[in-house]
Structures are given as structure tokens and as C-alpha cells.
Amino acid sequence: MFKPLLTHLLKHLVDQNGWAKAELLPFAGRAVQFDILPASAVIIVLEDGGLALAGEAITPEAIVRMAPTTALRILSGDQAAHRLIDIEGDVELGAALAQILRGLSWEYEEDLSRIIGDAPAHELAALGRNIAIGIRRQSWNLAEMLSEYWQEEQPMLAKKRHVQRFIDDVDVVRDDAERLAKRIEKLEAKFATPSTNESPAV
Amino acid sequence: MSKESTTHFGYETVAESEKARKVGAVFHSVARRYDLMNDLMSVGLHRAWKRYAIDISGVKAGDRVLDVAGGSGDLSRLFASRVGPSGEVILTDINASMLSVGRDRLIDDGMVNVPVLQCDAEKLPFPDNYFDCVSVAFGLRNMTHKELALAEMQRVLKVGGRLLVLEFSKVWKPLAPLYDAYSFKLLPFMGKLVAKDADSYQYLAESIRMHPDQETLRDMMLAAGFSKVDYYNLSAGVVALHKGWKT
After folding, report:
1. How many domains does chain B contain in total?
2. Which CATH superfamily is domain A2-103 in?
3. What is the mean pLDDT of chain B?
4. 8 Å CB contact of A57 and B59
5. Hey, are the CB atoms on B55 and A29 less than 8 Å from each other?
6. Which tens digits make up the pLDDT trace of A118-144?
7. Would you say A45 and A27 are in contact if contact means Cβ atoms under 8 Å apart?
8. Which of A127, B18, B157, B176 is an S-S bond match for B161, by CB 3.0 to 4.6 Å?
């Protein structure tokens, strides 16, 4: 029931992102499984460069796994999170399809304009964008406030400079301990070897 | 004297040479009310199933498409708008009555660039490796030698081409009693009321039960030479869309 609907949505997304078809065409007929637990879906590339959910009998050539938190980090533009994606099977295919899917964007203003007209769609989209920016800004403010509280008022989080100082101190202790160990080794060696200058007992 | 091979016609067993004639009589009888009955029987779902088949086909501008047993031309019409003026769609059916309905509808819709051809799917009059996509929607079930028809469709496909088989299939088990009641009680009644032909719709219900299930049809397509076959269950398996690739 959901496959036709999701396939139609995927088709719509690819149609809106014209560049994606050319990128997808070399992979026509090939399928990749995306595991973002607990969700899992096998996506197949169609011969017209579109995307669809695969059927019941297809064996994916690659499996792309990531944690939901990784997916959220990638969506928010965190490049470092890409290293946390695990690809099994045909790595080139999996990576290419994941890269293309990341690049797809939904032109919701265009879709909205078909239903309510250009001007109201633009206003509504602008309102939506402003609300999203507002939510993001408020979220940052809240996060900063909490982090300050947990660092200064109710210390639960360590400050960066304190962590760095601690790391430096650990390095000093480690170096000192190594030096001490060497010195003990030398002393042990010295006392274990009998001295040749000692005069015989009379 | 050798005994003639038999096949099924619904729940009846008939001589192979008889089946095409009997199926022809069924479709000749229902041709005029075919679309109305399809809409009534499937509550309009057959349109969504066909549209989904087009989405999955991957057909693009400039492609060559063969619509086998295309009858009233629903798929041909959708394909024609996809392939555009640089592409080619050919509508075929073994039944002249169905084909004339399809041809008239295409002409009424202004689609005069879709050739219409009466031919047997088991002996397709096309060269090898010619089409990018071949489709058969609700037609394979009525063919006498399904293996032969599948092999023919594989033959006329180009390397990289796809066969789409949209057909009634095995419904999800918990729904089977309800589906049986609908098929064997309500369907012939509707057929009698609307198409004035209860027997043809009784045949429809029986032929659906005799048609191979999803996995069996997949195996048949693989045996016919398709290198990869996938299928989609639609409406809980009432219908299945099989897609086979020739490589």
C-alpha cells in the first residue's frame, strides 16, 4: 500500500532535482538497502534515472547502515558524520546512491503553489522558513544556556581548557613515571652486577 | 491417434486448440462494457495499478514500447505520453473486439501515432532485440502457452530491456475468504447486471485462481531467459506486478 505512494514521492523528488537523473542513470536496475534502524528500505534505480522502492524479490547489491543520530547529523550538514556510515557489498554503488539521496531537496514552495497559487505559497513558505529559523535559534540559545549552567552553576560538563589542562597533566605524569621506571631499572642493574674494584677479604 | 494436449479454461479442462477461441468469445462478449466493469470490479484501483506499472517501467522519452494484450489501450495511452514523439508505442491484442475498443479510444484521445496490431503473443511479429519495454497487463492469464509467450516477449526485448507483467495473483491469506466471496458471488452478479454476462465474470474469477502465484510466475520468467525478476504485491496481493530484466 505504501510502496506506490513512496515510489511516487521519490519520483517527484527526482523530477524536482533534475541533476539527479543523470547521476543515477549509470546505476539503472541496481538496488541498495538503507538501514537507519528501526527503518529499512531497499531502493532501486529505474531505467529513466528515477528511484523506486524495490519489490519483494530483489537482492540489494549494497547495504548502507547508519544510526538515526548520524542521519540527523548528515541532514544538518555535519560533514564529519559521513565517516560513521557503514557500507557493505558494492561500496562504490552504496556511496554514490547515498551521496545522491543526500543532495535531493524538496521544493515545497513549488508544490504548494500548484494548490494555493504562487503568492500565497511564497508567503506561506517564507513563514515556514522564518519559523524554522526561529526554532533553530531558540534551540541554540537553550543549548548554550544549559551548557553554561552545567559548566558554571552545577558543574556536570568540563570546559575545554580544563580538559586540555588535565590531558597535559596526564602527559606529564606519564613522562615522569616512565623516567622513574628507567631510573629504577638502571639502579637494579647496578646493584645486581657485583663490583670488580672490591678488594678481597683478608 | 494421438490425444490432444489439454489446458485449463477457468476450472474447466479444455483442448489447447479450444482455449484461444473460448477466451476470444469471453472478451468479445465483454469488450463494450470492459472499462466500466473494470472500474466497478476494482473500485477504480486498476487505474492506480496501471499507473504504478508505468512508474516502475523506467520508460523514458524516445523508448520503444510494446503493449501486449493491451485491449482497451490503458497502458498504451500512458506509455505514449511518456515516450513522446521520438518514441514508439505499439498496441497489440489477439482479440479484434477488444482491439477495436482500444483503437477507438486512442483515436478519440487524439493519439493517432500508436499503431494497433492484432497478433498472438505466442508468435510476436517483431524482430529480436527491438523494444526497450514490453508490458502485458491482465493478459498473461488468458494465454494458452504462457511459457511460449514469455519467451517471445524476452526475444523482442533489447538487452537491458524490461518486461512488466501486471496480473491478478495470490491474495494475502487472511483476506482470502473475503476475496473468494467477492469473486465468486458478487463478481458474476455484477457481470450479469452490467455486462449482461455472468459466465464471463465467473471465468474471470476462476482463471485468477488458476493463474500461477507470485513466486511461480517469477520462476517462469527466469526460465524464459530473464536474468533478474522482481515483483511487487499490490492491494495485499490481489494484483502483482512482475518486472523482468533481459541482460
Report:
1. 1
2. SCP2 sterol-binding domain (3.30.1050.10)
3. 89
4. no
5. no
6. 888 888 888 988 888 888 888 888 888
7. yes
8. B157
